[in-house]
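Researcher: We're reviewing a set of sequences before deciding which ones to prioritize for further study. For each one, I'd like a predicted 3D structure that I can look through quickly. This is TetR/AcrR family transcriptional regulator. If possible, include the structure in token form so it fits the rest of the review sheet.
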Amino acid sequence: MENPYKRRKDPELVRQTILNAAVEIGATDWHHVTFQSIAEKTGISKGGIIHHFKNKEELLDCIMKQSLIELTHWIIEEKKLAGIENGSMAYLQVILKRNSDAHYKSTMRVIMQAILVNEKYVLLWEEWFAEHIIHGSRIEQSVNSLILNLVTDGLWYADNLGRNQINTHQREQIAETLTIFAKTAKN
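Model: Here's the predicted structure for TetR/AcrR family transcriptional regulator, in token form for your review sheet.
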């Protein structure tokens, strides 16, 4: 007879549960992400968490990579949805449109905090940005594309820092203005 108290092992589900809890906790302050706080949130023992992630840095590495994969999917989705090829414009649209999505907000806050915590994540972000947004280096960007990316970065920072008091109508106006502007910008 099977032991009714024995939990089923599903390592991917456990791993994803740990990651989701860490993102949720880390969205407010990465320093509050501890194996103890994750254990309290998920009911997974600290030993179980350590089984999947040997330390906090490994956990952050995984979260950062997973978050960039999600952002890539959102960029690709926006390109298809809006019928645009310009990575900079897709980046802007994602930033403007997904601002009310709680999962998006948590993911973006964790990316920002990771960038602020460790230089290696700055380099990872720059590498991702070069590949998925500008398809090269910032030096190779047109001035118009650079302006578009800097404005989008500013919106992204303001949203993540909770300093952005831009209403829906203003976001739509920004999108319209920058869409016109972007027609002259190259990736």
